[in-house]
Amino acid sequence: MARALFVSIAWVVLATVAMACDENTTEPQPAAVATVEITPSAVSVDEGDTVRLSVRVADREDTELTGRAVAWASLDPATATVVDGLVTGIAAGQTSVTATSEGVSDTASVTVLAVEPSVPSLELVEEGFTLPTFLTSPPGDGRLFVTELAGQIHIIDGGSRLPTPFIDLTSVTGCCERSKGLLAMAFHPDYASNGLFYVFLNDLNGDSRLAEYQVTSDPDVADPGSGRDLLIVPQQEVAHVGGQIAFGPDGYLYVAFGDGTSAGEADEPRNGQNLENFYSTMLRLDVDSGSPYGVPSDNPFLGDASTLPEIWAYGLRNPWRFSFDRVTGDLYIGDVGAKAWEEIDVQDASSAGGENYGWSEAEGTD
Fold it and tell me: β-pairing, 331-335 with 343-347?
């Protein structure tokens, strides 16, 4: 019996020791977060720029606690946002951001500074021109060609004007009363191979003349004797003649004419809505066919005996300048207005032509 009692006591002792061992191996509890500190406590950042904030999490003994989750938030995301401590300035103003870990937070103030828009700088390429009217380049050519109202075309190559004019048409231009003279030029899309270019000028009689010329074997000199008239439009006045020419993405030559009246007249001849003459119109010509030119088969008024087939659009007062968007092909027309309006008319690249821009029945939003 004594032996049995001894065995029982031994089992009790062993069980007690085992329980004590289990208690001694329990995992210690992690230290609680006592402080969260954002550094720096105040920052400034430009609109659209970023700045990095750091955060320190510590226990009550000020021992840094690593690996603790930190949630960031902005009081006003419209002024500044924050993601993992990276602050982005959105709009000028002041706000604050907070960092929170296990219910303990700290706040930093954020000032977003307005950024002044950059002002494009201008570079003087060349000077000393007399009444320059137009600037252009042949396709794929880095040279700049400058037309002067008196009739000369000059080349800027490598930032310097060449001493000899590309061509001198002063003997045929009627310069320089108001719009009278050389107004624009356009290079054929295949200029690199055929050397052809076109000019719009007012001649000695004041009439508007569209002519074709060709470069010589010297790429910097054209032949004045190669001129071929494509179109001559009589002008009673020297204002509102239009004057822009350009090849469209379709390879056809577009030519702009004004209403042919003086600045003080309100289109008394009613040219704006008259499709039996070239005034107030945009023409579309095929310079690669016909004599002296051809009319594209898809021109909107082709086959209508009451209109001129060359007309692409009409109702323009004085379409002094126009251009094609190089990406979309859309046509933008700058139409000089009368006393109250100036227009920029837009023709979508998908247009089949035939637009009536209103003059002289309407102008602007009238």
Answer: antiparallel
The reply to whether 232 and 307 lie within a common domain is yes
Both 79 and 183 in a single domain?
no
**CATH (domain of 73):** 2.60.40.1080
**Residue 195 belongs to domain spanning:** 132-347
Q: Round to whole Å and give the CA distance between 287 and 228.
A: 11
Q: What is the DSSP string of 144-201?
A: EEEEETTSEEEEEETTEE-SS-SEE-TTTB-TTSTT-SEEEEEE-TTHHHH-EEEEEE
CA gyration radius, the chain: 40
Give residue-wise pLDDT tens across range 112-130: 999 998 888 888 889 999 9
C-beta atoms surrounding 126 within 10 Å: 13
Band of pLDDT at residue 89, cut at 50, 70 and 90: very high
Give domain status of residue 303, yes or no. yes
CA 113, 118, 121: angle at the middle one, nearest 5?
155
Q: Which helix or strand (DSSP H or E) is residue 225 part of?
A: strand 222-233
Instruction: Say whether 13 sits in a helix, a strand or coil.
Output: helix
Q: Sort strands 54-58 and 35-39 into parallel, antiparallel or unpaired.
A: antiparallel
Residue 30 inside a domain? The answer is no
Question: Do residues 152 and 53 share a domain?
Answer: no
User: Are residues 154 and 240 located together in one domain of the fold?
Assistant: yes
